[in-house]
Write a structure and sequence with these properties.
16 helices, seven-stranded parallel sheet
Length: about 450
């Protein structure tokens, strides 16, 4: 095992910078403010409520994660944001209609203090969204420099010692890797030339990495999942993670699909449909943005079930994903799954899942954990892709040549073993034979 890394203390304030002050970001900010004031519990957050077992089961050592490792305290967090709409976090939260009015009124003062900076945005990349609070610049490189100025100014004015950036904005139209994404100098030249292959999310990522700020991508956009920006992350010694918060239907797939494979049950087909009425649902009503989300969602089953290894079980299953914008449902997403499985002697069976969830309620603690763990990784000198955070993403980033682990339980084991490693504790394999040796 490698030597335990030295972790710098979590002293001073941490800026959590969020492109996109919509339903997810305002639910995150309101939630942190509510927890600070004792108005609610941080349910859904590993960093706040999760534990990690250390040593043998007989030792009964199970500290809270936030007591084991030096995570930033919620009292030390300050939020900054960019958005195409000028509404502060209070007004944006009211518009999102995720949280109850009474709770929002109790949090009105801190939420109203979070005012979005003008965003880097183009309707070329998000066709169902537009707003007036947008930066102007000579080039995408110029816009990136403006974002760097924003980061420095916010960190200074909020008296923060360090920062992380978590993309909470909309899903962009589908982009594939191209030559301009292959190397940093070419990427920056393309920014200066306003190349259409450089999406707004990439400009945010570039600005963050240039400023030494860890970046996480909560959407399925290509963003930092390109060689050029990963080169920049390594060059700057900055941690990155992504992509696409894993919250509802895909979370269920990463639980159920491993069960099928563990018991060698076959799969004939998996039909998934969603209805969603918030701004994210409206954006995904555009075919280009939906394509980006669809690719993220469809990759999960193939990686978990490994049809090349089990052709008799998973060699020819159908997988269909649909997302429908339905305004009356708001943030209360509903996911339906019809799963056709095969058992002993080829007999068919079915599983039906109806998940009536709250999109932003599930995403907010994920965004918080990612921000705090990214800050921890940065202080531990862990630069580049943080695969141990795959637990939180639909389409986890991995090193070139690797396939991503999608199995939620493998992901959780990886995450907790990384925490044990950072704490200088023995990794746990769950072999357990020593309990039975005479």
């Amino acid at each position: 095992m490698k030597k335990q890394p030295t972790i710098a203390p979590a002293s001073g304030r941490l800026a959590i910078l969020v492109p996109g002050l919509g339903a997810v970001a305002t639910t995150l900010i309101a939630g942190v403010e509510a927890v600070r004031r004792g108005l609610a519990k941080p349910i859904g957050s590993l960093t706040q409520m999760g534990t990690v077992r250390l040593g043998k089961r007989t030792e009964k050592r199970t500290p809270l994660i936030r007591e084991l490792l030096p995570l930033a305290a919620l009292d030390d967090v300050r939020f900054g944001a960019w958005d195409v709409f000028p509404d502060d976090a209070y007004e944006s939260a009211r518009h999102a209609n995720v949280l109850e009015h009474d709770l929002l009124e109790q949090l009105r003062t801190p939420l109203a203090a979070v005012r979005p900076m003008p965003a880097v945005f183009s309707p070329q990349y998000v066709k169902r969204l537009d707003g007036p609070n947008v930066k102007k610049g000579r080039s995408k490189l110029d816009l990136g420099e403006q974002l760097r100025d924003d980061i420095r100014r916010f960190v200074r004015d909020a008296a923060c010692d360090r920062a992380v950036m978590v993309w909470c904005a909309s899903t962009e139209t589908f982009l594939e890797r191209s030559a301009v994404h292959g190397e940093l100098a070419r990427f920056e030249k393309a920014m200066a030339a306003n190349d259409p292959a450089i999406a707004p999310s990439m400009i945010y990522a570039w600005a963050a990495l240039k400023e030494g700020v860890p970046f996480a991508n909560g959407a399925p956009n290509l963003t930092v999942d390109v060689p050029a920006l990963q080169q920049l992350a390594r060059k700057q010694g900055v941690a990155v993670a992504g992509k696409d918060f894993k919250t509802g239907q895909t979370l269920m797939k990463t639980v159920l699909a491993p069960m099928l494979k563990a018991r060698m049950l076959g799969l004939q087909g998996w039909f998934s449909t969603n209805i969603l009425g918030n701004r994210d649902g409206e954006v995904l009503d555009d075919p280009g943005s939906f394509k980006t989300k669809e690719v993220s969602k469809l990759s999960v089953l193939d990686h978990i079930l490994q049809p090349e290894l089990y052709p008799d079980l998973y060699g020819r299953f159908d997988h269909k994903v649909q997302i429908h914008y339905y305004r009356p449902r708001g943030d209360n997403k509903e996911g339906w799954d019809a799963i056709d499985i095969v058992g002993w002697l080829g007999y068919p069976m079915q599983i039906k899942v109806n998940f009536l969830c709250r999109d932003s309620i599930l995403a907010a603690p994920v965004a918080l954990d990612i921000a705090l763990f990214l800050d921890l990784a940065q202080r531990a000198g862990m630069s580049g892709i943080q695969e141990w955070l795959s637990f939180y993403f639909k389409s986890p980033m991995v090193a070139e040549g690797l396939y991503p682990e999608h199995d939620l339980f493998i992901q959780l084991t990886k995450l907790k073993n990384t925490l044990r490693h950072l704490a200088g504790e023995e990794l746990i394999t769950h072999l357990g034979l020593d309990y039975y040796e005479k």
